[in-house]
Amino acid sequence: MKELSGKEIPPINGESISVNVDFILTHFPDHIFPRTISTYKSRGKQFEVFSKEEMIARYEDSNFVDCRINAYPSHTQYKGIQRYPPNFIFADLDLSTFKSKDSLERALSTALGIIRLKINGIPTVLWTGNGYHIYQPLDSVILEEYEQFSQFEQPSQKFIRFAEFYLTSGKSDPSHNPSFKSCMIRNTGSYNSKYAKYNLVKIIQKWNGYRPPIRLLLGTFHA
Fold this sequence. Notes:
Layout (H helix, E strand, L loop, with lengths): L1 E3 L2 E3 L4 H12 L9 E4 L8 E3 L2 H10 L6 E3 L6 E2 L2 E2 L5 E7 L6 H19 L4 E4 L3 E7 L17 H13 L16 E3 L4 E2 L6 E2 L1 E4 L9 H8 L1
């Protein structure tokens, strides 16, 4: 058993690490690297990696604790011009914002029902130790390139936050405000250090590989 900050960390199988990293990377359609990650050892500070191998090595260096990766690649903007579409929805349902575990479970069930009804999506769901993360990839476009959104400031980034709120019926963590630079998602099979005992980040449901078209949400978003 390794230790970090006085807490015992159960061992992780080396083969499963690569499998779990591969699974998370399947959520990203292209331009996988360079991309920022963060770890316990980096104290949550993001730094850039350029390959899967480098990513795993840095995770290992942090004993696989607090391993996150940005859902969006580096350089999504250039001189104020949006270069990358909002093709990943990250919703955070945190137990601390609910009255009970039962109400959290109902919120998850409702969110998954809305995602299935509105966009025919079946997202990845992770248990992080004190709540659920929902990861839904999309087939998307850069909203700044479309006339109906030209009057708005940063519509692509605003869409990321709108989608989280809308698809969770407003039950997502109000302090969670993802952006292209801060959409940091946890890696499955790693550990969450936020609690008295390290919690393994577990897969509750796997994404089915389908990327719903963003147009299914654009009418409501524009309104």
